Amino acid sequence: PRSAAKAARKHLREGDFDASSAENSEDYIAFDFDDDADTKSENEKESSRKQKPSTTDTSNNRTRREDEQWKNYIKDRKQRPWAKDFRYRKARNIGERLNMEMNDLVDYLSPTEEEHTMRRFAVHRIRQCAQQIYPSCRIEVFGSFETRLYLPTSDIDLVMWYNGSDSVGSHGTSKVLSKMADGLRKQGIAYSVQLILKAKVPIIKFEETFTGYQIDISLNTGNGIQSAKFIKEMLVQAPALGPLTLIFKHWLGLQKLNEVFTGGLGSYAVVLMVMSCLQMHPKVDMSDTLENLGVLFVDLLELYGQHFNIFTVGIDVANRRYYRKPDYRAVFAVKDPADETNDVSRGSFNCAQIRIALKDAFHTLTRAMTALNRQTWDYGTKDDGISLLGCILYIDKPAIEHRERVHEAYTSQQWKDMPGADTFDASDYDSSASVHEPIIKIHERGGDILDKKGKRRDNKNVVYVLEDEDAEFRGQRNAWNSDDEDTNLSLPQLT
Predict the structure, then answer these.
(1) Under 8 Å CB-to-CB from 23, ≥6 apart: which residues?
(2) Rounded distance, CA 344 to CA 215, Å?
(3) Which of 86, 91, 347, 447 could, after both became Cys, cross-link 96 (CB 3.0–4.6 A)?
């Protein structure tokens, strides 16, 4: 059988939809594993249908043994709490089955209102402490908290605005953050405090004692708040951006590749990379992608793990394009839509390891899909409901236990007995800020074509892209072809 990714690309680019799926979902993108169907004669097909696989056939037995191997990745079903095993048996094909599980995982990872309230309460306690130390300071939330693209164990990113005389220069920044860290520790709010003062953006890292959430505080850094506005705008344009970002971030966290100061990818870079994948995909209507999450996730792994040329190609989401990098550093280059001079992934020095891990995840997942497809839809074996995503994703026990503790703290009203609870007001943390005018160029779909009777009709598969002013990169849509820079940057234009 052909690989899952190859089949996915065939359907995405050629529009070869599965007939049974198309009845209920016109835009559903199915996987096609019947690689030999076109080369067999009708007699050969009839003959093959009559012959059952021989139990003594060495090749068949070896294939079946290989198909069983992917299940070995799934050691503990308790680490796959999102998987609703029996529901998956209703899937009509492997693509639909993966989609069902993707949606279940997103539902599990998405923050509940109880968790969001507990995060707001943690911020409230920190804000009160900060204003006691520096009465004129202001604490604001940004990053994934502001956009709700955070995982159950994600950090809370805060920025402290303070313009006192002792905050001037790098020495002043260190002094202010050190005093802030000391005050948080003395008031019993911060545990396991780390002062990272020599980084490009100095921060305090600590664990909030009541909720157990990890907190990062920086001083006078405004880009994060502006970035959150752009992300909110992109979430409206591309509904699949949120789900794909959550799963990609979760996978990076399991690989320990989600911290910039250790060479991993930061949250903002992850969002922009996912958005770029959606923008540049050969056949994606960004406004209607939720039915194809499984295909898109496989393609995301393949693109950045196997085909994207990190040496010569950079990502420019604001202008819907790729650009030629001025250097050949082995890191992803991702322009900040709010500031084109800012490369948000410049500190992610461990990109080589990220690529290796992505490539491994792509091959592991597609092997699992091929095996399950062969067992269930070729051999007719009953689908036992084992998680497909479980071969590369899981929820570790500490994360599950922490989430349970947070829910218990909320439902038992324990937080109301904590200092600061009497002044806690959820309306102070309303993150529904208005979205500014779009800066990201949106493509349009639809165009008149002639049908078989010579009449004009609208065809939604016709895609128009607002082209960039730079003629060198006009009409680019992907970087899927090879590692050769000329191939990556000389792609056919859409018409």
Answers:
(1) none
(2) 20
(3) 91
Q: How confident is the model at residue 254 (pLDDT cuts 50, 70, 90)?
A: very high
Helix axes 94-109, 241-254, angle to 10 degrees: 80
| DSSP notation for 305-334 | III--TTTEEEETTTTEEEE-SS--SS--B
Distance separating alpha carbons of residues 333 and 203, to the nearest angstrom: 23
pLDDT of residue 63: 56
Q: Is 448 exposed, middle or buried (0-12, 13-18, 19+ CB in 10 A)?
A: exposed
The mean pLDDT of 379-394, rounded to a whole number, is 79
Contact 85, 386 (CB under 8 A): yes
| Max avg pLDDT among 63-72, 221-230, 402-411 | 402-411
Q: What pLDDT, on a 0 to 100 scale, did the predictor assign at position 166?
A: 62
Query: Identity (one letter) of the amino acid at 74?
Result: I
3-state SS, residue 486: helix
H-assigned helices in 2-93: 4-14, 19-24, 42-50, 58-69
> Which run of H or E residues covers position 215?
strand 214-219
Q: Does 445 have pLDDT greater than 60?
A: no
Tokens 């109880």 correspond to: 114
Query: Which phi and psi angles does 371 have, rounded to 5°?
Result: -65, -45
In the chain, where are the structural domains located? 113-225+401-429
Which residue in this structure is represented by tokens 């009559």?
A: 50
From first CA to last CA, the distance across the chain in angstroms is 33
Q: 335-371 burial, b if ≥16 CB within 10 A, otherwise e?
A: bbbbeeeebbbebbebbeebbebbbebbbebbbbbbb
Is the Cα torsion angle 468, 474, 479, 484 positive or negative in sign?
A: negative
Does residue 251 contact residue 361 with C-beta atoms inside 8 Å? Answer: yes
- CA–chain centroid gap for 198, Å, is 29
**The pLDDT of residue 62:** 54
pTM: 0.72
| 37, 289, 328, 387, 394 from 96: Cα distances, Å | 21, 13, 40, 13, 21
Q: Which two tokens stand for residue 333?
A: 């280059």
| Rounded Cα–Cα distance for residues 342 and 365 (Å) | 34
* CA neighbours closer than 13 Å in the CB half-sphere of residue 39: 3
Question: What's the CATH class of domain 113-225+401-429?
Answer: alpha beta
